[in-house]
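> call design_seq(struct)
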């Protein structure tokens, strides 16, 4: 647990009633109390004036404020991520629609090409058939005239 008092001291609980901390203007200090009812004292720096209950309440309030700020920051971050995700999702949908449209166009072009090729082949087949028919007609006419 991290805490800050009005004197800008920060620290954390190391368990079993012992607090380790550092003042912003000095080196780390160890603050211990053998009883939860005794005030804490810093080694050689004077006595902490608040009772443990008041100290604990201010510590709790500071922690609550810090946690509320973290929740607020995380909520803001989550909102930004939602917007980013929405924008990314919309962009992906647009790209996918573009690709589908391109595939549809390619399909239509291929189908048209196949249809044109088929019609060209049919024209050639008709011409060949027409030539054969005309040739056959001429053969029949020639054979009738010669007999």
């Amino acid at each position: 647990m991290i805490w800050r008092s009005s004197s800008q001291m920060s620290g954390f609980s190391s368990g079993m009633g012992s607090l380790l901390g550092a003042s912003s203007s000095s080196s780390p200090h160890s603050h211990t109390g053998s009883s939860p009812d005794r005030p804490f004292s810093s080694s050689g720096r004077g006595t902490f004036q608040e009772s443990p209950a008041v100290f604990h309440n201010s510590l709790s309030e500071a922690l609550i404020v810090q946690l509320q700020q973290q929740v607020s920051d995380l909520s803001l971050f989550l909102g930004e991520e939602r917007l980013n995700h929405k924008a990314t999702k919309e962009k992906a949908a647009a790209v996918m629609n573009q690709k589908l449209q391109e595939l549809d166009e390619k399909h239509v072009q291929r189908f048209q090409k196949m249809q044109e090729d088929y019609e060209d082949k049919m024209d050639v087949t008709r011409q060949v058939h027409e030539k054969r028919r005309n040739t056959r007609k001429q053969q029949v006419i020639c054979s009738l005239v010669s007999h």
